Amino acid sequence: KQEVTQIPAALSVPEGENLVLNCSFTDSAIYNLQWFRQDPGKGLTSLLLIQSSQREQTSGRLNASLDKSSGRSTLYIAASQPGDSATYLCAVLPTSGTYKYIFGTGTRLKVLA
Amino acid sequence: DGGITQSPKYLFRKEGQNVTLSCEQNLNHDAMYWYRQDPGQGLRLIYYSQIVNDFQKGDIAEGYSVSREKKESFPLTVTSAQKNPTAFYLCASWDRDDYGYTFGSGTRLTVV
To answer: Measured over all CA atoms, what is the biggest interatomic distance in chain B, rounded to whole angstroms?
Structure first.
């Protein structure tokens, strides 16, 4: 059974720092991996989607990498800002079964001004 | 703009009452999903539908019901059989072309 783990559960950093959020999954048979951002009381906003054949995707200050063989993905945030404070979730879409994403429990990020 | 609309944003339910949460999408996505989010527990799948007039139970379907009469709409009914309905409910749709999820802004349900 596919399981997705995100470490750390919470993280506080000073403004301007570069940081890395980690996501690991137990089964490498995935179509893709998606990173989301969730602000308190809001829905999930898609940040980056990496197909299984890709190694990384970039959007602005965000870069996500995927190492399918080792079951790992990282989300790199450059020059963090207080506006980046949110919960970040990763999710994988397994190739087996129906098309349902498996979610991690998220990393709660706080960027201090 | 294409997207998913969930309504209402806040909903209050009395004991023994059924309530229905609305989810509408104009993305032309085939698949739609309902998730429940509780503090510290992450997202749990309630029901999903991959095509009109068809839906399947997720991991926590007891006390909930859905319908999929139109491609654009996937309403969720929280019945009186759901003993602990207070939670944040999220609707999502899935795009077969790029395989990504799109989420609505959520409905917060509170039992009063």
So the answer is: 42
Sign, Cα dihedral of B76, B3, A63, A53: positive
B50 close to A (CB below 8 A): yes
DSSP 8-class letter at A9: S
d(CA B27, CA B90): 16
**What residues in B contact A46, CB-CB < 8 Å?**
100-103
- Residues of chain B in contact with residue A105, where contact means CB-CB under 8 angstroms, are 40-42
Give the nearest partner residue to B98 out of A49, A91, A100, using CB atoms. Answer: A49
- Residue A8, exposed/middle/buried by CB under 10 A (0-12, 13-18, 19+)? exposed
Digitized pLDDT (tens) for each residue of chain B, 112 residues in all: 679 999 999 999 888 899 999 999 999 999 999 999 998 778 999 999 999 999 999 999 999 999 999 999 999 999 998 889 999 999 999 987 766 899 999 999 998 8
Q: Which residue of B has its CA nearest to A4?
A: B42
Chain A environment of B99 (Cβ under 8 Å): 31-32, 49, 51, 93, 99
